[in-house]
């Protein structure tokens, strides 16, 4: 466990660097779990003192030709150049709404850039500054695995009555599978409505790829029992489930999780309540069920931001989500006590691969007339993925944020 050091300018307790922290800060690599670790070009050195100026010059040269999108979990050094900040779905929508910008520089992760490519016009090109910026949760559900799972459901006689509901944090392939099989996409704020829609069209749901969001929504918001949910493990024969379990279940949860939110524990909740009397525990629904069940508030990234913004001065908050965002909220609200829920560092490792050198390289390349790291979803995949997204957009508006 790392200790923490308080930054004098904000009072925010920063986790100390460690071997794990360096990997999570993208100063290391794990080829087995990322889409790539090499950048096809010469990056400027991270130590270059002119990086900020170079980014500003390239950005100014591109003007309205480029739209820079920054996810809430991005580093501040990147966020400062974002034209729009938000969650993945909001950013993809913003890209589609800015048809006058042919270049979309998406400072997020791979599945987000895919969604932007699906929703934008043909003349728009989506650029991901570092192709190594994948998503471990999205990679936990591969198309071939989900096809095999559907065959298992068919053999059990339940596929016909099962509706797939896939989280926005999934690959284009999985969104396409969902569209092909009559399902919808959801975000963490409209998951309940998406599930209600699904149960109007079938008697079971296959929820992909985040087990925790599916379980928390079913149990906390829809009144299901834990026994109504079963966990499908793609690495076990028949998902590790019997035919009876599949036929009895209402929710078939995919065995996937967020590597950031899945780290928060019930012990961390108890610990912060002991350390900070009167603290409010605010967590994302991608956290484990026992963490969400013992928190004071549970909601999407936008909900977390809005809750902190509206909180009274002097209030105390322990926030269970990505560290870059928690640090930013603490710096923006010095009149409130805002701490990271866990004492351990918890950056989104692949999101942090989008750093200032990669952004500068992308912007300077575009300014020189060279498109790099373009993300392209093939037309058939995009067609069915768009069907699933359109079904989500047709749901009654209750928010669409991840």
Mind explaining what this structure looks like?
- With 402 residues, the chain is an alpha/beta fold.
- It has 3 domains: 29-135 and 351-377, Rossmann fold, CATH 3.40.50.10800; 138-258, Rossmann fold; 261-340, NadA-like (Rossmann fold), CATH 3.40.50.10800.
- 38% of the residues lie in helices and 15% in strands.
- It is built from 16 helices and 16 strands.
- The chain has helices spanning 19-24, 51-62, 76-79, 88-97, 110-119, 143-155, 172-180, 191-201, 211-221, 243-248, 266-275, 289-293, 301-310, 323-332, 356-367, 379-393, and strands spanning 4-6, 13-15, 66-71, 84-86, 103-107, 125-127, 162-167, 184-186, 204-208, 229-232, 251-254, 280-283, 297-298, 316-320, 337-340, 374-375.
- The protein has a 5-stranded mixed beta sheet, with helices on both faces. A 5-stranded parallel beta sheet has the order 8-7-9-11-10, sandwiched between helices.
- The protein is globular.
- The chain starts with a strand and ends in a 9-residue tail after the last helix.
- Mean pLDDT is 90; it is low at 1-10 and 16-40.
In summary, what is this structure?
The chain starts with a strand and ends in a 9-residue tail after the last helix. Helices cover 38% and strands 15% of the residues.
């Amino acid at each position: 466990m790392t200790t923490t050091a308080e930054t004098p300018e904000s009072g925010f307790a920063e986790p100390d660097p460690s071997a794990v922290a360096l990997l999570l800060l993208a100063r290391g690599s794990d080829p087995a779990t990322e889409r790539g670790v090499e950048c096809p070009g010469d990056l400027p050195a991270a130590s270059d003192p002119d990086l900020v100026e170079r980014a500003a010059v390239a950005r100014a040269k591109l003007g309205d030709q480029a739209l820079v999108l920054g996810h809430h979990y991005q580093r501040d050094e990147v966020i400062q150049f974002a034209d729009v900040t938000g969650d993945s779905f909001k950013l993809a929508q913003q890209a589609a709404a800015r048809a006058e910008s042919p270049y979309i520089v998406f400072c997020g992760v791979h599945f987000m850039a895919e969604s932007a490519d699906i929703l934008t016009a043909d003349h728009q090109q989506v650029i991901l500054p570092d192709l190594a910026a994948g998503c471990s949760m999205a990679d936990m559900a591969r198309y071939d695995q989900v096809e095999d799972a559907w065959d298992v459901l068919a053999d059990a006689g339940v596929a016909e009555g099962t509706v797939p509901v896939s989280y926005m944090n999934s690959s284009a392939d999985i969104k396409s599978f969902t569209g092909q099989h009559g399902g919808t996409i959801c975000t963490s704020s409209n998951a309940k409505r998406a599930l209600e829609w699904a149960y109007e069209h079938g008697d079971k749901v296959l929820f992909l790829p985040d087990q925790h969001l599916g379980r928390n929504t079913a149990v906390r918001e829809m009144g299901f029992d834990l026994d109504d949910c079963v966990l499908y493990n793609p690495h076990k024969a028949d998902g590790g489930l019997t035919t009876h379990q599949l036929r009895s279940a209402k929710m078939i949860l995919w065995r996937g999780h967020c590597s950031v939110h899945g780290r928060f524990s019930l012990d961390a909740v108890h610990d912060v309540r002991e350390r900070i009397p009167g603290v409010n525990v605010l967590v994302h629904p991608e956290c484990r069920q026992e963490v969400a069940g013992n928190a004071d508030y549970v909601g999407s990234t936008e909900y977390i931001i809005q809750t902190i913004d509206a909180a009274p001065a002097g209030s105390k908050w322990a926030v269970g989500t990505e560290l870059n965002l928690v640090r930013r909220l603490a710096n923006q609200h010095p009149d409130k006590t805002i701490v990271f829920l866990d004492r351990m560092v918890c950056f989104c490792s692949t999101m942090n691969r989008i750093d200032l050198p990669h952004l500068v390289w992308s912007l300077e390349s575009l300014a020189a007339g060279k498109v790099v790291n373009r993300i392209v979803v093939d037309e058939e995949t995009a067609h069915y993925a768009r069907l699933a997204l359109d079904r989500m957009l047709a749901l009654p508006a209750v928010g669409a944020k991840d």
